[in-house]
Amino acid sequence: MESSWQRFINNTILRRTVVLVAIIFVLWYVRAVMTEILLTFIFTYLIVHWLRLVQRWLPKLPTAITAVVTYAIIIFLAYVGLTKYMPILINQIVRMVDYVINFSQSNDMTWFTQYITRYVSMSTITTQLRHWVTIGISTLTSVGTFSFSFVMAVILSFFYSIELKQMNGFSRSFLDSNVAGWFFRDLYYFGQKFVNTFGVVLEAQFFIAITNTVITTVCLIVMQMPQIVALSVMVFAFSLVPVAGVIISLIPLCMVGYSTGGIKYIIYILIMIAVIHVIEAYVLNPKFMASRTQLPIFYTFVVLLVGEHFFGVWGLIVGVPIFTFFLDILGVKSFTKSKTNKINLQKR
């Protein structure tokens, strides 16, 4: 007769549910270092994929040498960016903010200001301004903390990369543990699921953001818009947020565009964003996402709202990948894939 513990071990669904709840509890308990965890995972995921790609081209080249050269190039580019381009970026951000402030105080916006003050009292506006100033100050003070987390994530991902084979071999040895082998096998199961969903989706969103930024930057250069560097960085940051990022980036782009070329530039920007959204929806998403996150827009916005509430800015970036991970755990297939399978069955 099996004991209660043995029945628990043999019940795969119950056992994995308990392990998943334990993982969530641990992550919530260490949420103070969640930035380091997410950055380490992202860096490690991208670097490991790069190392495997290089191994296909140069199979005899040691992984450690490739990792050292890769990180040396990254550090050099970071140094050049901080010393040469960061002052330019800060200067252009300040000038872009001046553009927006001048636009909001111009005669063209008098009607809008009067309309707002008709329904909103000045005390309310002042309170909101103080609130945003407080947020800005807290953001500036958190730059040092984020920089430390960034450096620690780079260091951890570096040590993982230079000992990639040793790390994989040592980690797999836990699966054969006589005491808690079942626990580590379930961790390995969720780890594979996490990499195959969260990692792939986040990587796809990163490449989509790069593509959107390149297209937008070319269009802004053709339109002779000011502060190209600052606007490009802003577009890239917003593009990391699925769906909503493109819409949010419209506001500063339209303000700067109006102050530069009037209403016609707003029309140009609206057309540009519409074309980019079509390219993202019908070309980039099917190519990069591979039908993995074909969520309705309503679900996407709900996930972003919930993610921002619990995780802040990180929730906007990782909310959809995490939701996709849970869909994969629950065995929920994408609508397109289910529909395709149904059509194929009907043909048979």
Automatic annotation (TrEMBL):
Subcellular location: Membrane
Keywords per UniProt: Membrane, Transmembrane, Transmembrane helix
GO cellular-component term (any): membrane
GO biological process: transmembrane transport
Alphabetical list of Pfam families matching this protein: AI-2E_transport
Membrane-spanning segments: 12-31, 37-54, 61-82, 132-162, 194-223, 229-253, 265-285, 297-330
Predominant location: membrane
Topology with respect to the bilayer: Multi-pass membrane protein
Family under the similarity heading: Belongs to the autoinducer-2 exporter (AI-2E) (TC 2.A.86) family.
Protein name (Swiss-Prot/TrEMBL): Permease
Taxonomic path: Bacteria, Bacillati, Bacillota, Bacilli, Lactobacillales
